[in-house]
Amino acid sequence: MSTEEKSLHFIEQIIEDSLASGFPQDKLRFRFPPEPNGYLHIGHAKSICLNFGLGLKYNAPVNLRFDDTNPAKEEQEYVDAIKEDLKWLGFNWTEELYSSDYFQQLYDWAVAMIKNGKAYIDSQSSEDMAIQKGTPTQPGVDGPNRNRSVEDNLTLFEGMKSGNFPEGSHVLRAKIDMKSTNMLMRDPLMYRILHRHHHRTGNDWNIYPMYDYAHGESDYIEQISHSICTLEFVMHRELYNWFLDQIYDDLKVRPHQYEFARLNLNYTVMSKRKLLQLVQENIVNGWDDPRMPTISGLRRRGFTAASIRKFCDIIGVAKRENVIDVSLLEFCLREDLNKTAPRVMAVLDPIKLIITNYPEDKEEWLEAENNQEDESAGFRKVPFSRELYIEREDFLEEAPAKFFRLSLGREVRLKNAYIIKGESVVKDVAGNITEIHVTYDEDSRSGSGSEASQRKVAGTLHWVSIQHALETEVRLYDRLFIDEAPDNHKEKNFLEFMNSSSLQIVKGFVEPSLSDVKADEKFQFQRLGYFNVDKDSSEGKIVFNKTVGLKDAWEEKGKKEENLLMNTQKEINKYVKEKDENNADLILNSIIENIKSIDNYSLIIQTIVKNIKNDNNSLLFSNLILHYSDKVKIKDIEEESLTKLYSMSLKSQMATVRILAIQNLQNDLNNYSLFETQLSEIKNVEKNEKVLKLLNDLKL
Q1: What residues does CATH 1.10.1160.10 cover in the chain?
Q2: Residue 62 main-chain phi, psi, to 5 deg
Q3: CATH code 3.40.50.620 region(s) in the chain
Q4: Which residues are tagged catalytic?
Q5: What confidence tens digit (pLDDT) does each residue in 258-271 have?
Q6: In the CATH hierarchy, which top-level class contains the domain 115-212?
Q7: CATH homologous superfamily for 10-101+213-263?
Q8: Are the beta carbons of 673 and 632 closer than 8 angstroms?
Q9: Residues near 306 by Cβ (< 8 Å), separated by ≥ 6?
Q10: Are the C-beta atoms of residues 207 and 163 closer than 8 Å to each other?
Q11: Which residue ranges does the chain devote to CATH 3.90.800.10?
């Protein structure tokens, strides 16, 4: 069998070139350097898989180094969580190291730099330093402390270390070039005063090194050969090299920094600051909330380490930023769970089903396959009796032709059991169905080999025996945000895009084979999706988390919303052509309801902007969306597009367009004054009574 070799990604090619140029393979060394100021998320998983993957490929050591230089934000809890995540992902580090291990060495090097005229103490305020530093287009200027004597700098630096000064009173800056085109080279900070307790060094230090100083020097101490960072550190590379220049000994390996594109995932936020906000404001239930993109959250939801590694492998390593669809991550998970998760039956929205011709005292244990994708998974026994639960949505009293589930007069098969036929229903005083009565074909049992068992029916339903069912708590998780890019909209807080339906808790019933499940065990609830046993489970109480559905519901929803907007635009044409006023009103109400039902913020914005053109129907559509959608506000539309929409709409020959434009302007105080003159001119020539009334109400 021939196998196709996977091509090298650019980091691997760099390493191959290094080896080809004579770099000794036994000198290759990598590191994963998290800052312990939060839990790792799926974006870190890409870096983890890259660095540890290189270690495995080249049989080279990979250090786990915690860049713990900011005690104001770092905690031992985060250190422990990071180590747990790495182990769960399947990676082992060579050495566990900390930047704080090097505090004395970093301090000694800083003293040497002061003595060599390469660093100085600056006592300006942070505001004055920012002004003095200039802008990207304007060079900086030397500050008043830049030429302090070596003796004064050493004395002040020792005083900072000894805790003689308050926070913010002094900093140590590298003395490089205040006119550099790279603003990071304009005398960057090396040390600041922080009177904070450090999770490892306690209160030994009152000064702490800045990341840009500590990072590269720590790489050098550990003799890291390839320091791999994300693209936002491209501009930092010059500074990384400058700091190395001050200490480099040509008898040692000199680290080199290389940058790759970080993982950007839609419907997600990756900022640790924003994830921390979600936790601190109790919007989620901790860092390991199953809706969080943290590795611990994904693990608790039911993701497998193999699926995350597979995902990172598929997306690859590139130099250019792009956004990955979260559906790909879910696809990798389904593919993994499909092979490994046992199939079981559960009902989450139960309705009682009674088989009227089944003996009341009879009980059967039927054979059910555990996983048709895994021959070694074997079979189990499930109990069957006269009274069952089925999903409420699997029954309609009167069903359309393409409804392939249970209804009166129709037959379906119960999974692993018998063919049943809907006969009648029992309703409460409010008219709600409380029981479904059916009959069964005694000769149709699955696997019996009888002629009746091989009869084809329209659908197959899952079920549980009421007498034997286990009651469980089921947490139905969904995406945390309803927008593709929740933190990428100007003047919009990412919290405005929270999915109010991201967690629903229901009471479900499962088959008795699940009575002794343990936390983190994974199952496929047939026809419902994949579920994971939550750590909150205890004796007598099982809690399941919905991991992912069997299909991508969001893709289906996205297509539905796109199709709905397209069809709504066609309804606009019908509305415009309709001569009967009552019919027109009905069509308009339908259009408005459709607009209100769309949740996708980005899709709505795109549709509004796309329809700002010299076409009455398109302008009507844009104005209707702007007026009736509660997902967008006027300020969300770019000023240029908004001005164009108003200007074109007020000139429209269609009165409805002019009315909606005026109404939208009434709600837009920022732009209303810009159009007052045009509105007055329209008032002087307007003949439509509704438009005139609206203009008169404006008191122009």
Answers
A1: 272-340+476-507+535-550
A2: -130, 120
A3: 10-101+213-263
A4: 35, 262, 272
A5: 999 999 999 999 99
A6: alpha beta
A7: HUPs (3.40.50.620)
A8: no
A9: 336
A10: no
A11: 115-212
pLDDT per position as a tens digit, 551-593: 887 777 778 888 888 889 889 999 999 889 899 889 999 999 9
The CATH architecture one would assign to domain 555-697 is Alpha Horseshoe (1.25)
Phi, psi (rounded to 5 degrees) for 345 = -110, 135
pTM (2 decimals)?
A: 0.85
Single-letter code of the amino acid located at 690 = K
Give which of 381, 387, 386, 401 is closest to 351, Cα–Cα.
387
**Closest C-alpha among 532, 409, 430 to residue 474:** 532
- pLDDT for 491: 77
Question: Would you state the structure tokens that stand for residue 697, as one six-digit string?
Answer: 């109400």
pLDDT at 112 over 60: yes
Pull the structure tokens for residue 376. Answer: 């070694």
**From CA 532, how far away is CA 535, in angstroms rounded?**
9
- Here the tokens at position 70 are 């900011």
Which token pair is 295?
A: 């590795």
* 608-630 per-position pLDDT tens digit: 999 999 889 999 999 999 999 98
Domain with CATH 1.25.10 in the chain: 555-697
Percent with pLDDT over 70 in the chain: 99
Distance CA 559, CA 563 (A): 6
Q: Domain 272-340+476-507+535-550: give its CATH code.
A: 1.10.1160.10
- Least Cα distance to 72 among 161, 172, 198, 165 occurs for 198
Contact 505, 476 (CB under 8 A): yes
Q: Is 294 helix (H, G, I), strand (E, B) or coil?
A: strand
DSSP-derived secondary structure for 315-370: H---SS--EE-HHHHHHHHHHHHHHHPPEE-EESSEEEEEETTS-TT--EEEEEES
The residues of the chain that CATH labels 2.40.240.10 are: 346-462
Q: Which of 11-25, 143-157, 394-408, 511-525 has the lowest mean pLDDT?
A: 394-408
**Mean pLDDT on 36-58:** 97
Check if the beta carbon of residue 659 is closer than 8 Å to that of residue 695.
no
Question: Helices 76-89 and 42-58 meet at what angle, rounded to 10?
Answer: 60
What pLDDT was estimated at residue 700?
56
pLDDT band at 109 (very low <50, low <70, confident <90, very high): very high
> Which CATH architecture group holds 346-462?
Beta Barrel (2.40)
